[in-house]
Amino acid sequence: MRAMPSLPSSRRSAAAVVALTTLAACDGSRTPTAAGEPERPGIAAAVGAGDGVAASTEVVALGTIPLPVNQSISYTGTALRVTNTSTGGAAGFLVSNTSNANPALLGQSNGTGPAVKGYQNGTGGNAGLFQIANSSNPRAAVYGFTNGLGSGGAFEITNSSNGTNAVLAKTNGRGSAIRAEATGLGTAGTFVNSNASNGANAVYVQSSGPGQALSVVSLGLGNGALFTKTGGPNSTAAAVRAQHAGGGAAVHGVNTGYGRGGLFEATSVEAALTGSQRGLGLAAFIVTANPSSTSPTLFVQSNGANWAGTFRADNPGGRGVQILTSAGAPGLQVIGGTKNAVVGTTTGARELYTEESSEVWFTDYGFARLAGGRARILLDPTFAETIDVGAPYHVFVEPYGNAALYVAERTPLGFVVQLRDGEPDVEFSYRVVAKRQGFAHRRLERAPWADASPGLAAAGAH
């Protein structure tokens, strides 16, 4: 055998320094050459076939392989196997010419097996490792594409007891750990749990920083996100469930343009949006954060023949609707309709209507009796706190007997009822109508914001 020439350490892996090589029916003595090129010894001769080792057997050799090598073989085993029993690599391929755009290693198969396969029998190594060491290189460390009908890449865990990820993407930079882009007509990403008994999430998103765990942006005319539940009419699961264990919102919809911060639509008989609170907080909280906004915080519209909104308190101690405004501001205003109380009767539920007035009045009722033809009635102290006692107020009296009564005096503390004629100790009832505190000057105010309302009947219309 020829003595191993002294090579720099950086070139030893490219020279197949220590090799266990399987060479089967390779002609053994000659290497194919280009036309006009002198023939060179074959691989078997270079690794020691001249020492009595047959070309079809495994040989252990220390030496160099004349390049280039371009051979074919008809063999059921591995055409080339290199084994290193020490601590170095088994093989190394290097393109040292910086202008060379060809691959350092080309794996090609015309069969049905993989063109390149990495197999790891140890307990701690990777089956494959691809690294770009040049920090200014903008290309991908791994790039897979296919001209066929299959996937460009597939990652699978076949061990059912493996609890780790099939794909782990990590970045220490400022870009995305994973980016999926569709330049055709397909979806950019699809996540499927195909096991019907799998109770885990199809997608799990987590953020430990101050940013969003999930941000969805649509630059086109479509929705930013679409969530669909197709479990059938007996399925009670939600298409979207947002859960928050902290003090923030479970769902926060923001629109910085001219559209909506959120849109919920249902084509079935169920609700498009349901808010359920199982703790002690609010089931829904809606706020207009811009103090210059003149739009409603909540706009509810029904195109059907039913109610635009229903508020129901099922708890015996629950209440219906509470409206809070700043002092002096309108509370509830109904356009085109009435404000009714609905009560049950023997003939079914009946509507009772409120009495509307041109000014803001509060009313108090009571009973009293004359003593010697006269009665002084003091205003209820609590009622007096709710009205403008400095403004004139009305007192209406009704006797329950043969008597004619009149109001002889009105003061901020109360009023005096006097007998004009009849029974001097007659019982009577009274009604006090006074201006609400803070609304004394309100009368038939204009509501220009409702002029164009479709439910507003024009003057004189029947």
Number of helices in the DSSP assignment: 3
> N- to C-terminal separation?
118 Å
Strand content: 15-25%
Low-confidence stretches: 1-35, 40-56
Shape: rod-shaped
Proportion of residues in helical segments? under 10%
SSE order, as H and E? HEEEHEEEEEHEEEE
Which structural class do you get from the secondary structure elements? mainly beta
Q: Mean pLDDT, rounded to whole units? A: 79
Report on the biggest sheet.
Answer: 3 strands, antiparallel
Rg from Cα: 45 Å
Record keyword descriptors for this entry.
disordered N terminus, three-stranded antiparallel sheet, 3 helices, 12 strands, 462 residues, Immunoglobulin-like, mainly beta
Quickly describe the structure.
The protein is built from three helices and twelve strands. It is mainly β and 462 residues long.
Structure notes:
The protein has helices spanning 9-12, 43-46, 381-386; strands at residues 18-22, 30-31, 40-41, 58-62, 340-345, 348-353, 361-369, 374-378, 394-399, 403-410, 414-422, 427-435. The chain is mainly beta and 462 residues long. Among the domains are: 1-93, no CATH class; 361-435, Immunoglobulin-like (Sandwich), CATH 2.60.40. The strands form five sheets. It has a three-stranded antiparallel sheet, with no helix packed on it. β2 and β3 form a beta hairpin.
